[in-house]
């Protein structure tokens, strides 16, 4: 793991830690993952709430033959709850001959529930000699239930 970054502010109190910094480069070779991004804000309190607002500029994963390049705009995490709002610009998967290029607009995760609303711009599948081009507008997943409208 190789990291090169600027730690702008680091304020520590008893049981509390607040950091605001820019993480300029983060290169991980473990598991064949390379990331280069700016981490703008990271606020941690004692064991329950963590709020992050940052831009994830480049994320290249070769594990499982998957390449992603996107901007992660907002990431808010609380205890047992996770809310994300971001644009996934390019997602190319060569595993099982699948290529995706789409924008993932909203992803809201709660305990045991997952709700997604996004546009799937291009989906080309060569597995079984099938080619598709469509927009996947809503993907709602609950416990033991999958509802799709596209």
Itemize the secondary structure elements and their pairings.
Elements: E1 2-13, E2 16-28, E3 33-44, E4 50-61, E5 66-78, E6 81-93, E7 98-110, E8 113-125, E9 138-142, E10 145-149
Antiparallel strand pairs: 1-2, 2-3, 3-4, 4-5, 5-6, 6-7, 7-8, 8-9, 9-10
Structural class: mainly beta
Count every beta strand, where a strand is a DSSP E run of 2 or more residues: 10
The backbone outline, from C-alpha atoms, is globular
Low-confidence stretches: 1-150
Say what oligomer this is: single chain
> What is the helix fraction of residues, given as a range?
under 10%
Strand order of the largest sheet: 1-2-3-4-5-6-7-8-9-10
Summary keywords:
mainly beta, single chain, 10 strands, 10-stranded antiparallel beta sheet
Description:
This protein is mainly beta and 150 residues long. It has one domain (2-149). Helices cover 0% and strands 74% of the residues. The chain is globular, with a radius of gyration of 18 Å.
């Amino acid at each position: 793991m190789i990291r090169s970054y600027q730690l702008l502010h680091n304020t520590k109190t008893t049981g509390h830690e607040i950091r605001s910094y820019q993480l300029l480069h983060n290169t991980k070779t473990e598991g064949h993952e390379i990331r280069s991004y700016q981490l703008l804000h990271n606020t941690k309190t004692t064991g329950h709430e963590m709020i992050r607002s940052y831009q994830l500029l480049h994320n290249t994963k070769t594990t499982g033959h998957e390449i992603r390049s996107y901007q992660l705009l907002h990431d808010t995490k609380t205890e047992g709850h996770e809310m994300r709002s971001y644009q996934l610009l390019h997602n190319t998967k060569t595993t099982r001959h699948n290529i995706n290029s789409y924008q993932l607009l909203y992803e809201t995760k709660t305990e045991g529930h997952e709700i997604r609303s996004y546009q799937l711009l291009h989906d080309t599948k060569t597995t079984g000699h099938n080619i598709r081009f469509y927009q996947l507008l809503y993907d709602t997943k609950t416990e033991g239930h999958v509802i799709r409208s596209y």
